[in-house]
Amino acid sequence: MANMAQAVRMALHYAEQNLGVTDIFGEDVGAPLGGVFTATQGLKTAWNTPLDERGIIGMAIGLAMAGQRPVAEIQFADYIYNTIDLLKIAGNTCWATHGDWNLPMVVKTPVGSGIRGSIYHSHSFDATATHIPGWKIVIPSNPLDAYGLMISACQEINPVMYLEPKALLRIKGEERIPGEPDDDKLLSKLIDAPLGDRSQWQPQWPAELTGYAVPIGKGKVVRPGAQLTVVSYGRTLPLCKKAADDLAAEGVDAEVIDMRSLWPYDWELIKGSVEKTGRVLYVNEDTEVTNFGEHLVRRTVEELFYKLLAPPRLLAGKFLPGIGLADTLEMASVPQQADITAALRALAAEQP
Amino acid sequence: MSKPRLLNREEDTAPLERDLLVRMHDLMVKARVLEERLIQMYKQGHGYFWIGGPGEEAFNVPLGLLMKKGQGPAYDYLHAHYRQSATMLALGEEPIGALRQMKNTASDPYSGGRNFAGHFSKRAWNIAPVSSPIEVQYVMAPGTALAQKRHGGEGITIVTGGDAGTAEGDFASCLVWSSRPGTELPVLMIVTNNQWGISTPAATQHGETNVADRGRAFNIRTKTIDGNDPVTAWRELKEAMEYVRRERKPFLMEAKVSRLYGHSSASGANMVGGELDCLVRFEERLLADGVLTREQMDGVRARHTEEIAALARQVREEPLPGPETIWNHIYAERK
Ligand SMILES: Cc1ncc(C[n+]2csc(CCOP(=O)(O)OP(=O)(O)O)c2C)c(N)n1
After folding, report:
1. B128 with A157: Cβ contact below 8 A
2. Cβ atoms within 10 A of the Cβ of A166, count?
3. Residue B143 is nearest to which of A66, A97, A133, comparing CB atoms?
4. Contact A165, A324 (CB under 8 A)
5. What pTM does this model have?
């Protein structure tokens, strides 16, 4: 099955062909590389920009103003910080002009740890992104959702921030993307650029790809359960699923929710689950102080306090200036499998 | 009255038509009167903050008159800054909009009471929203220009900003993105150089002789002009715009202008000494060349003053936006 990078690529191909995407651009996004994670290989509207993140976001705003449909890439989320005021402008343009202008633009950027990216290739962006009103923010945790969320992003008439968990970009999905060939090797042969000289290479896109869309704002129950709820997204989501599966053997029945959209988000889904289980753990890997999960904890306390059997918990990245390169440092900085399992076990066992 | 002569630059042959001179004068006066009314409204407590362009009319009026006005890439885009009411009026905008924005009424056509004076936005005419952070417009301009290059035709992108702001990286971004060989973009980059940041003199913040010189390193055609003379501004803008329209390549123009009321209300918004007043100078010339009489020019001012004062009285009675409207337009909705 397709991996997430291939899924993003196929969705963008579909969007170029069918949804009016006119430009896919960023540093090294066009030929020959097709993106440092290969998510834009072979796309016909992909082009390389100067090494200038502000220029990239500005270009996207200008193109969107002029009726084009841009998908801009910032090579790593760590480098999006020098565009913060432009992101604020993109988010407030509709509001500030009293609805006169809207910006149909997508910004995609890889986020988070997991590839031993050291201090400047490991940062999360969820807390900062969710602090910029006017954007819609999505983050897939598997290739099928990556495809469907990109389709929705390219159909939006508002700015969409598409966060790609870089640890998951190479992992194959368990579900097939509608229209993707049954044979993974064949898929790779069709759409992965060859090593070496690519000047003559053209991808052969699967002809049956569809407009399969994951609606923005809708989460998903990844594993139903009755005893406690774990809510996550991105890199930590599969870890939460695995932890829940493992704990089933100990008699702990955890419900796992993948948010998929951080803004707007599926509060109804979370609320329904927490009302049922009375226990909730939020998991992400952004730094824990002023973390998006803190917002979820606050809302849980305010709205669901009398349904709770234990305090809502947040398991997040340590509040550190960066993620160190050594394996031991990275592991200690952001939630790992064992941390999640332990946190779930503790939450399940907690007695008032 | 003797037959009026037509104004001309010494080295030029084709003079500007009398009608055009009269029209430019009328618009310059209208813009000046509007700004003075905005300042008065601010001082009387009918607004929180004033910033605008008195002193830049000689440049901004020709700019508005020369723009190809309309919506979409076939027409010109303007990524303006906050000193361009004269450009808006020259494009045909009604002054009441600026008054409404100053008073932050629900009827403010640019922002619904949300933004500062002079922060225009008008999609129907490709006027991109003015946003307070200095120089951000220079990174957006290549985007609209790329769409125009692709579209074909004659539409160009015009971006304007101040001299101090050229120190921001976004100015460099515009130079880089608009001049890449083979991908040159139809952007007319304009820097209105009034020699000041808020209180920082240009001499203490720029090493280059002229801001326009920075274009040379990028093989961008450049010019530094006297922006206090509407005849010069008309001619130079026309020439530069024709170049950008035809060649689909960038042009960097630096216009030397005055800043008659200081930076904004933050610095008092009082008439400052020692700055050349483009309107006074133009009127002297129109008078000397027999284009308009003193009485005619005084009449123009009196008429605009009266009309704009009446509009200001009207706006004073208009309601503020309802508090519940904070939730409107966070997202665009599909119609
Ligand atoms: C990014 C940013 N920094 C600082 C300011 C505060 N500020 C507003 S106007 C201004 C000076 C601008 O000078 P210049 O670019 O020469 O334009 P002028 O106002 O003189 O026309 C400053 C520093 C701002 N609005 N945006």
Report:
1. no
2. 25
3. A66
4. no
5. 0.96
